[in-house]
Design brief:
The protein has about 375 residues and is α/β, with parallel strands linked by helices. About 35% of the residues lie in helices and about 15% in strands. It is built from 15 helices and twelve strands.
């Protein structure tokens, strides 16, 4: 082990004998007591020295091997130590690509803050390259999500959509102006390749509406150009994903409202069917209106504010990456909405419905299935 104080956490002396690592409330750690010698020893923890060399140099500061080991263990227990040489074949493969590693340095620094164990950031970044994510939609939201996931190290990002790129599909971070007139799936594959760091991820050769729930999918992100399919998603396309246990996350813009979530864990959290049944319970006219909204074809270009679409894409991609890294983000079984012009993100917890065939109500218990159970909170960022 070559211990290194996590460089992403800025440190400052709070006073005599106490150091604070980190600035923000979510990640700050106060560490002490420290004497002058121990404080000086912290400067040696830069990842260039193994424990034997640290023991040797610590003797010049009148610190024993036992004191050094105790200090390193305390720092590691507090989540303040990283190990840039974390073992494992996946991390070795990542380290063998120095150009890609340099591009990922900000991501690795962030992962090291979120995951406290030494080498946790490197292992998760390596794991991302083994994952396969499918993004359904190549509009302003879906294309940008795919680009972020590819650039963040996800090894295989597929984008499924039909038709040809229209001028209003173009966005910074998404499909470029040169893609207008091209098939959307082709333009999306090119975007994913350009966004990837290092080896080009493999992409699907299919477009349109292929069957879902394929084995090996880590996550499906549902981001159709039609915002109604996110705000009031049709449960039928999700049936294969529920059957195969494939997690899926909804994201999009409807009128002037951005939506992220829910992230559906089949059999564990509420699905699109639960959402539809809950709404019908609360408004008996909802099914009638929904059938009208879903019928026919819309000729008008749908509202999709560029700033709002970009915010939705960024938040959805961050939630997707958090899930892929092994966490359950705030969108799990929950929907986040922000409407122009105030853009106050608010949450709605989606209750599993007893009459839904997804089975989530049996998992979470009867008390969670009597309605949407709306609760409102603010989301920072």
């Amino acid at each position: 082990m070559h211990p290194m104080l996590k460089p992403a956490l800025r440190r400052a002396w709070r006073g005599r004998g106490t150091v604070q690592f980190g600035v923000t409330h979510a990640h700050a750690v106060k560490f002490g007591p420290l004497d002058i010698a121990t404080g000086s020893f912290l400067e040696l923890l830069d990842g260039t020295r193994g424990l034997p060399l640290l023991h040797e140099e610590a003797r010049t500061l009148d610190l024993s091997e036992h004191q050094v080991d105790m200090l390193v263990n305390r720092l590691a227990s507090a989540g303040l130590i990283d190990d840039v040489r974390a073992a494992g074949p996946e991390t070795e493969a990542l380290r063998s690509r120095p150009g890609a590693l340099e591009r990922h340095r900000p991501d690795l620094a962030s992962l090291s803050v979120v995951h406290p164990e030494p080498g946790g950031g490197m292992r998760r970044m390596a794991a991302r390259r083994t994952m396969r994510v499918q993004v359904r939609g190549a509009g302003r939201v879906g294309a940008a999500i795919a680009a972020v996931l590819s650039g963040a190290g996800v090894g295989r990002v597929e984008v499924l959509d039909g038709g040809h790129t229209e001028p209003w599909d173009v966005s910074p971070g998404g499909l470029p102006p040169t893609s207008v007139g091209e098939r959307r799936d082709t333009a999306a594959r090119q975007l994913v390749r350009r966004s990837a760091i290092g080896a080009t991820p493999r992409t699907a050769e299919s477009a349109g509406s292929p069957s879902g729930g394929e084995p090996g999918l880590s996550l499906i992100v549902v981001a159709p150009r039609d915002g109604l399919a996110v705000y009031a998603p049709d449960p039928r396309p999700a049936e294969p994903w529920i059957a195969s246990g494939t997690p899926h996350l909804y994201a999009g813009v409807m009128e002037a409202t951005g939506v992220v979530g829910p992230l559906v864990l089949p059999g564990g959290t509420a699905c699109a069917g639960c959402l539809e049944l809950n709404r019908a319970d609360g408004d008996e006219q909802w099914p009638r209106m929904l059938s009208q909204w879903r019928s026919g074809r819309r000729a008008a270009v749908q509202a999709c504010d560029l700033g709002l679409a970009t915010a939705v894409a960024g938040l959805a991609a961050a939630h997707a990456l958090s899930f892929l890294d092994g966490e359950l983000p705030a969108s799990t079984g929950t929907r986040w909405e922000a409407a122009l012009p105030l853009l106050d993100w608010r949450s709605e917890r989606i209750g599993a419905h007893l009459d839904c065939s997804c089975g989530a109500a049996g998992h979470v218990g009867r008390e969670c299935s009597s309605g949407a159970g709306t609760t409102h909170d603010t989301m920072a960022g």
